[in-house]
From TrEMBL:
One Pfam family linked to the record: 2OG-FeII_Oxy
Source superkingdom: Eukaryota
Similarity section: Belongs to the iron/ascorbate-dependent oxidoreductase family.
Source organism of this protein record: Prunus dulcis (Almond)
Any one GO molecular-function label of the UniProt entry: metal ion binding
Name of the protein: PREDICTED: 2-oxoglutarate-Fe(II) type
UniProt keyword Glycoprotein, yes or no: no
Limits of the Fe2OG dioxygenase domain: 161-267
Keyword Disulfide bond: no
Keywords: Iron, Metal-binding, Oxidoreductase
Amino acid sequence: MTAALNLPIIDLSSPDSLSSATSIRQACIECGFFYLVNHGIEEELLGHVFEESSKLFSLPLEDKLKLARKQHRGYTPLFSENLDPTSTSKGDSKESYYIGPLDTRSNLNQWPSEDILPSWRPTMESYYRKVLSAGKRLISLIALALNLDEEFFEKVGALNKPTAVLRLLHYPGQLGSTDEEIYGASAHSDYGMVTLLASNGVPGLQVCREKSKQPRIWEDVLHIDGAFIVNIGDMLERWTNCLFRSTLHRVMPAGQERYSVAFFLDPNEDFVVECLKSCCSEASPPRFPPIRSGDYLKERFRLTYGS
């Protein structure tokens, strides 16, 4: 029996930002995960996102493959990704769809035909913009949690043109019998700065707080209606000199269809990520050299997809 992980709930609308920042700091040092409520995304809009996501993934495979992933935009089929390089499975049992920035880079995005899914694009664009706004407000609290100025990441230009990516995910309910262990998403940590995840409530997400220990102990992350599950990525762990933790997590099959939507908020491609002054000292010097955000993410994608 897997135990449930007890995570703090952060209220993004709270006027007491210092108290919220203190709770975020503790959560990020201890396990790198927390819940986020009152984030400004209406329940109705989130419901539409899951409806439109379901419509897309219900299309015939040949139609979905016409939108196959190019330049990290578009559709990826079942088993096309294996997030755990030590796993011997044929790939993760999920299909997904990437949507990138909506600014001048938006011409890289691929959109389903309006003849087939007329409400799809406006729904996703509306959700993207609202969760980006929530993510930027969250980053201000993370700055406070790191003993920095609330507007630090804005002032240094890290989020002028953020590399923010929306990823729709579908985990099939039944995959037939097999002797091979099947994962919805095999064990991994996220690559970037911070991830905001919403789901349709079907369980499956698990966290391993101590990734270096064997055997690994996995704990369930329970669904809370209306709450995002937020986790820290490898880039922010690097940025904070490993003060904040990017935690190993996975999705296990639950015997039901699971839909989720992940929003990955990362810095501008050209922004140089180097140890924050509040996270290093003579006793704790920087562990990593500076690196361009875009170069770091490109290499992580190459290791996952081979391109």
